[in-house]
């Protein structure tokens, strides 16, 4: 028995799980809603943080400090940078960075501030469990680097810049902040994303078309992982 947090950023990323769970309790706290439910011997705490690094930082802290989550699984969608990632494909982040954390004016590399590392690692045990789950389900799970920042990327030049600096496979707006909270509070962290777009010109149209389906692919996968924890 474990208390497992399942965090997303948008309603599309979490409501499919609430529909599957059916029975849950809603707790309003810190300008957001948190949902508790039982699933396969575990207690779950679910929430969508709202978009961005600050909102996701707040929700991750609340889930750990107030609701006492012992592991955190993030589920959601991302923009693909690596051309081998197609819309609907799943990517598990081995490490993440904040591409918009910029004190390069002082000679530091992009993404670096004193006292932190550029990259924040996720939990190796959870990542290898995910690979086992993918194998059992007969689906391909990609692993790689995610770049996080407070911007929806829909521009080839921005995409290529972030991709080349950080060797990032995908971009999104919450993963690195959640991973940073989990690392600081010593809670194992897993960050999963299904591709909703390719972060280039017109990514906003792909996003609108594919967000619901890709979000469900990711959500279903993290629920499967709970069965193995
Ligand atoms: N989430 C899904 N697609 C994204 C993109 N292109 N940029 C930032 N976050 C995203």
What does this structure look like?
This protein has helices at residues 11-21, 53-66, 124-137, 156-166, 175-184, 203-228; strands at residues 3-8, 25-29, 32-39, 42-48, 71-80, 90-98, 120-121, 141-148, 170-172, 189-197. With 229 residues, it is an alpha/beta fold. It has a single domain (3-228), classed as Nucleoside phosphorylase domain (Rossmann fold). A 5-stranded mixed beta barrel has the order 5-9-8-6-10, surrounded by 6 helices. A hairpin with a 2-residue loop joins strand 3 and strand 4. Helix 1 runs parallel beside helix 6 and helix 3 (124-137) crosses helix 6. The mean pLDDT is 98. The chain binds adenine. Adenine binds next to strand 5, strand 9, strand 10 and helix 6.
Q: Structural class from helices and strands?
A: alpha/beta
CATH topology: Rossmann fold
> Which stretches of 5+ consecutive residues score pLDDT under 50?
none
Tell me the Rg in angstroms: 16 Å
CATH class: Alpha Beta
The total domain count is: 1
Trace the largest sheet across and list its strands: 5-9-8-6-10
Outline:
This protein is an alpha/beta fold. Helices cover 38% and strands 29% of the residues. The chain has helices at residues 11-21, 53-66, 124-137, 156-166, 175-184, 203-228, and strands spanning 3-8, 25-29, 32-39, 42-48, 71-80, 90-98, 120-121, 141-148, 170-172, 189-197.
């Amino acid at each position: 028995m474990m208390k497992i947090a399942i965090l997303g950023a948008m309603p599309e990323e979490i409501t499919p799980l609430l529909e599957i769970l059916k029975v849950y309790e809603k707790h309003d706290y810190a300008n957001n809603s948190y949902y508790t439910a039982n699933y396969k011997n575990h207690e779950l705490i679910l929430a969508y943080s709202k978009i961005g690094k600050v909102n996701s930082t707040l929700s991750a802290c609340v889930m750990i400090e107030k609701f006492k989550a012992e592991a955190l699984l993030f589920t959601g969608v991302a923009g693909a940078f690596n051309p081998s990632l197609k819309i609907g494909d799943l990517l598990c982040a081995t490490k993440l960075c904040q591409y918009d954390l910029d004190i390069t004016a002082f000679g530091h590399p992009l993404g670096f501030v004193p006292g932190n590392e550029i990259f924040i690692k996720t939990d190796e045990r959870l990542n290898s469990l995910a690979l086992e789950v993918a194998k059992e389900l007969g689906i391909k799970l990609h692993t790689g680097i995610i770049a996080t920042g407070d911007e929806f990327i829909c521009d080839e030049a921005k995409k290529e810049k972030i991709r080349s600096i950080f060797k990032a496979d995908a971009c999104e707006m919450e993963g690195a902040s959640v991973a940073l909270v989990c690392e600081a509070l010593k809670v194992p962290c897993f960050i999963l994303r299904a591709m909703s777009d390719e972060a280039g010109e017109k990514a906003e149209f792909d996003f609108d078309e594919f967000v619901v389906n890709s979000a469900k692919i990711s959500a279903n996968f993290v629920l499967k992982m709970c069965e193995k924890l």
